[in-house]
Amino acid sequence: MKEKEKKKKIKLYAKRTKDKGSNYKWIIGITLWTFLISAFISFISDILLSNVGILIAFIILVIIILTGIVFDIIGVSVTAADEVPFHSMASRKVKGAKTSVLLIRNADKVSNFCNDVIGDVCGVVSGATGAVIISKILYSANIHNKTILTLSISAFIASMTVGGKAVGKNFAISQSNNIVYSVAWIIESLKGK
């Protein structure tokens, strides 16, 4: 009896250390991906913002904020979704069902990528975009008191981000299965092409 318990403990320990090893790989991988995604988005937004007017810069800012909100909705949906309905869909070979199950089973990683990586990168880039907009307004309007302008743009960015994510979280929790299925369907469609 003691031998069986000993083997059980060894298997459990081996599983735990294996999980820790894969967790370290995930942490290193996601850190590198964050660096690359952040550099790419910053580079693209810098190129787009350098030669545009204030109105287009505001539109780019709103797109960046909306991107963060959409990915936050996806991250929350994956953690709130129920895997069971997707099993019957997968058995009927419904497009997107297997990927839905995969997303839900990896909810911690998907949520980390969507909420933390994309969400935080969008937050940083939206702040930088706000700074570019401020400098464009100051240059074109020849404003000497920049405090009110800076506070207004910063407050706009913060309130749009926080308010949008608050509305998005409520929607994500109530429609989690539908959102996960839609994302999975899009992923499978893109994979096919």
Features:
single chain; 193 residues; mainly alpha; 7 helices; 90% helix; 0% strand; elongated
What is the tally of beta strands? 0
Overall residue-averaged pLDDT value: 84
Secondary-structure-based class equals: mainly alpha
As for the number of domains, it is 1
Name the overall outline. elongated
- N-to-C span: 56 Å
Radius of gyration: 22 Å
State the major sheet: none
Low-confidence stretches: 12-17
- What string, H for helix and E for strand, traces the elements in order? HHHHHHH
Number of helices: 7
What share of residues is helical?
over 70%
Query: How much of the residues is beta strand, in percent?
Result: under 5%
Keywords: Membrane, Transmembrane, Transmembrane helix
Protein name: CNNM transmembrane domain-containing protein
Organism: Caloramator quimbayensis
Transmembrane segments: 26-48, 54-81
Condensed summary:
This protein is an all-alpha fold. It is 90% helix and 0% strand.
Which helices and strands, and how do they pair?
Blueprint: H1 2-50, H2 54-80, H3 84-91, H4 97-105, H5 107-141, H6 147-174, H7 176-192
Protein name: CNNM transmembrane domain-containing protein
Transmembrane segments: 26-48, 54-81
Keywords: Membrane, Transmembrane, Transmembrane helix
Written overview of the protein:
This protein is mainly α and 193 residues long. It has one domain (44-192). Helix content is 90%, strand content 0%. The chain has seven helices and no strands. It has helices at 2-50, 54-80, 84-91, 97-105, 107-141, 147-174, 176-192. The radius of gyration is 22 Å and the shape is elongated. The chain starts with a helix and ends with a helix. Residues 12-17 have low confidence and may be disordered. The chain crosses the membrane at residues 26-48, 54-81. Keywords: Membrane, Transmembrane, Transmembrane helix. This is CNNM transmembrane domain-containing protein.
